[in-house]
Specification:
Length: 131
Amino acid sequence: MAQSASLSQSASSSNIESNNENGVLCNCNRTTKIVRVWTKDNPGRRFYGCPDQKPNGWQHLALVEARDIMREQKEEIKNLKEEVRKLSRDTEGVQDPTAVKEELKQTGKNWHLDSWLGYGSSINNLGDQEL
């Protein structure tokens, strides 16, 4: 990752090293040091560093993997936010469930009444034809 190599050379960043209290070991089984990098984009970002490893060693691969995971998560968050917006738009016209239930009840009563009226009208028409 070219950015990590340039961080220590950049005039707009600074590095602070400290001993690792967590006991994280490098791939070479040496205790790593925590390096805190201060940049405009990542103020106070902490990295583990090994004095024996080159800048493009396993730390570089770990950073690349972390970057890829963060990109995937950002994309997933973006998709989920869009889904929430879509669902919110879809539910804007939805009424209160109890009001919908009452409306359906009333519609059912009206349908039931209409069907009986239609049945009665049909019977009446049949009676007129026989005469």
